[in-house]
Every structure is written in structure tokens, then in C-alpha cells.
Amino acid sequence: MKDKLIKTQLWYIKKYRGNTYFISGGGWAVTLQPRRLMLSLLVLLVLLVGGCAAAASSGDGCRAGCPLALAAYYFSEWSNLTFIASIFGIGDYQELLPYNPAITNPDYVVTGDRVYVPFPCSCLALPAVPSSTFLAGAIPYPLSRGGGDTYDAVAAIYANLTNAAWLNATSSYPPNRIPPGAGKFKVAVNCSCGDERVSRRYGLFLTYPLWDGETLASAAARYGFSSPEQVELIRSYNPRMEGASGKGIVFIPVKDPSGSYHPLKSGVGIDSLLRAFVYRMLRISRSKLHGTLIFNSCSSMWNRE
Q1: Integer Cα distance of 229 and 201 in angstroms
Q2: Contact 166, 96 (CB under 8 A)
Q3: Facing residues of 118 across strands?
Q4: Per-residue pLDDT tens for 89-109?
Q5: Using alpha carbons only, what angle is made at residue 30 by residues 24 and 31, rounded to the nearest 5 degrees?
Q6: Where are the beta strands (DSSP E) in 8-109?
Q7: 119 forms bridges with which residues in the sheet?
Q8: Where in the chain are the domains?
Q9: pTM greater than 0.70 (yes/no)
Q10: Which pairing describes strands 66-74 and 205-209: parallel, antiparallel, or unpaired?
């Protein structure tokens, strides 16, 4: 039987010497038996399709967060800046003002306006599945002293920035009653740190809840992304939100207090993550693969901009 060669963007797979396969690409190579080959390819495919970049917009499979993200808080008739600051763990409402230049009088904010609240965007893990990670702010919400807090009640306070189902998934407390002795309850508000596969120009993102009548396109236009090319850019950051209307959250690039877009800092993209994962996997499994691992420093294709 002639050797079979399968070429892909990142590696090639060649069958030789009976039932042994040779895999190479990106500076690494290994010989595998058939049973191990299929498992390895499946893992690689999941990584590539899933897009496990450290700064992925959705945050699925994150490895690190970023120091700053913004939340668009819907200002209702019973809101005030002191209250908004307090539920985000901010001691002084004046810390909000640099991110809200349109607010000229802190004592008067128009109902329906959005107040932009800064918070750190962290890489967190689901309590039930610690290996499943996501990008979110762990907002310290002060619980009622008498108890009786529920996920529904807490979610309502955060004005569609989260919901009861997500709080249930990201917390270990019973859904109908959060223990009063739990201290400050961590509210998960999803966020984005940008995506180097989409653009390095944008590194500061707004978590924007869609309200009645709003769509991804209308939210994008609200922040200056209205041309077809710009809307397509926003779609790239929100692949699951096309067609959504009046519910869900979207991530929009926004300017920092200086009035400039905050560039994305160099991070670990999918190529680097894949390289590190493959190297670790092959080293750990070397004794079980019945093959030889060859790893060299030819990593230019993994580190290109």
C-alpha cells in the first residue's frame, strides 16, 4: 500500500510502515498507533473549532482575563449613581464619571440612559465543571442581612446584565435561597477582552444587554459601528447573537476615558494555545503512544501576528 498523505493548514498526517502514522506540523512531530491517532485528532479538532483563544469574545476556554471591561447599566427611575456604584463594589460613585462624560450633573441622569461601569474581567470556572472556563466579572453583591435573597431577585437588580439561570450555573448556592451567612455573593457578569483573530485594534469592550426592540446591529450603530464592514466586525465578536432581539448580551468595542480605542494587548491566541496543549499532551502520553516525540524550535508559524 502506498503512503497516504493528508495535508491541513497546520500539520500533515502520513501513513507508513503498516499501521503506524506520522503527524507533523508547527515544529512538532510524532508517530502514533491508529487508536491513539483518532483520539489525538479529535482533541485537536475540538480546539480548532472551539477557538480556545485566551482572549476569545465569548470566553469559552479562557486562560486569562483582562484588567478592565465596562458594563452598560440601564438607568431606571429608581436608580442613582451611588446605588449603581455600590452593587458593583465601587465605594465612590465619582469613580464612574470618567467613563460617563455625558453625565454633567451626577444628580440628574435621564431614565433609559446607560451608565458605564468599570470592572475587572476575569477567567472563571464553573463550580460544577471546573475545567469549563469563561470570561466574567465576579461582582461582589452585598446580601441582605435577614436573608431571603434569590437568584431572580439578584438578577433583577443588575438590569439584564445577568439572569437567574446564569447565576445558578455559576454559583453553588440553592437557587431559591442564598444563605444570609454567605457574605458577599459573587454575581457573574459576562465580559470580553477582545479577540486577536478578529482585530488587535480593540481591547476594551462593553457588555451591553439588549432591551426591547434592540438588535445586535442597532447596538453596534449606537456606538458608531454602522457601515456593513463595521457591523460584520461586531458580528465576529458576537457569533451567537445574529438575529437576537430584545434579549441577551452583546460585546461592543468602546473608547477609554481618554477618547481612544484601547488596543488589544498581546495574549495567547489559538495557535499558541494549541502548540502548548499538543506539547504537553504528547509529553505526558509519550510512554503510551509507542512512538517518538520530536519537538524543535521551528515555531514561526505559531507566533505570527
Answers
A1: 15
A2: no
A3: 70
A4: 999 999 999 999 999 999 999
A5: 115
A6: 12-16, 20-25, 28-32, 66-74
A7: 69
A8: 4-53+269-295, 66-253
A9: no
A10: parallel
